[in-house]
Amino acid sequence: MSSSLILSISFNTPKLLPKTKPKPKSFHLNSYPILAVSISSWQTKSFNSLVTRTSMKDRDASSSSNQDLDDDDEEEPVLVGEDSAVFNLADQNISSWIVFTLILGFVLFILQVAWIDNSTGLGKPFINSISALSDSHEVVMLILILIFATVHSGMASLREVGEKLIGERTYRVLFAGISLPLAVSTVVYFVNHRYDGLQLWQLQDASAVHQLVWISNFISFFLLYPSTFNLLEVAAVVKPKLHLWETGVIRITRHPQMVGQVIWCLAHTVWIGNSVTLAASLGLIGHHLFGVWNGDRRLAKKYGEAFEDVKRRTSVIPFAAILDGRQKLPRDYYKEFIRLPYLTITALTLGAYFAHPFMQAASFHLHW
């Protein structure tokens, strides 16, 4: 009985529970009102100070960034005209330049036979007919310039109408075919008679005059021939176009040919110092001043508001737009001159100086 009683009683071993550490008393700021207010005030001030400093830095950075953008916009306005004197070899077509060379050779051959050669050409009879109008070399010189200017500027003014009638290329060939012989006649007559007429002054022996005249002539030729930007158009190999240039020398003056002609005339008039040279200079300058008005008129008619934008930030007088702030030169402005057309003009200008004796001999040989 006892054994069964013992067996019937369940025997449970007590479980061992892990010892737990007493929890520390929690710290509540609410228990200390004064300290709570102080800490809360310090946290608020610190946060506000951090936000203020961050906001000021962001505002300064944004202002600086906007200022840089404004400066860039002021320095480099968006161009509406064309970038002048661009010449990329990768874009050139060899066959086009072969055609250009052939056309140039053919034109020079025709010019020699039909105009320059005294035995077959019309150049000498033309000069003789003009010379018969007056015994004054000054008057003959002015008449020759007037004829050339009338034909050259007149055909330029009629270009739009002419191109619609016979096409751009045909009109360019006609324009060159008439203008070129007249230009040759005018140049040859000037070379042959430049020391005729009344001597007004003699400065060739003065100190530094030769150097000044040489530098002036170099600059004048550098400005005179921006048309070399598009030789293929000059020869009508590609379709000719009336361009609205805006970079390079155009930043200095909107009419570089006029400025170059004025410099050339002043230099030669100072050097030679007689009435024939003075008459030639007055005639050429007058022609190019008319060209300034006529050129702007044609560009305004073709390009409208785009030309007005270019006109506002360029000037006829060299450097005027730059000095009064209308023309903002880019930082790398000099790169606009380190291009093949400008380098070609430089080489040809130097070559023309050293070729002066040969050109004078060729003119004397014609006896015009």
Automatic annotation (TrEMBL):
GO biological process terms held by the UniProt record: carotene biosynthetic process
Compartment(s) where it occurs, according to its Swiss-Prot or TrEMBL record: Membrane
Membrane association type: Multi-pass membrane protein
Residues annotated as transmembrane: 97-116, 139-158, 170-191, 211-232, 340-359
Secretion signal, residue range per the UniProt entry: none
Residue intervals of the NnrU domain: 140-359
GO cellular component labels: chloroplast; membrane
InterPro entries documented for this protein: NnrU_dom
Predominant location category: membrane
An MF annotation (GO) of this entry: 9,15,9'-tri-cis-zeta-carotene isomerase activity
Transit peptide recorded as keyword: no
Keyword Transmembrane helix included in the entry's annotation: yes
Keyword set, alphabetical order: Membrane, Transmembrane, Transmembrane helix
Alphabetized PANTHER family for the sequence: 15-CIS-ZETA-CAROTENE ISOMERASE, CHLOROPLASTIC
Protein name: NnrU domain-containing protein
Source species of the chain: Dipteronia dyeriana
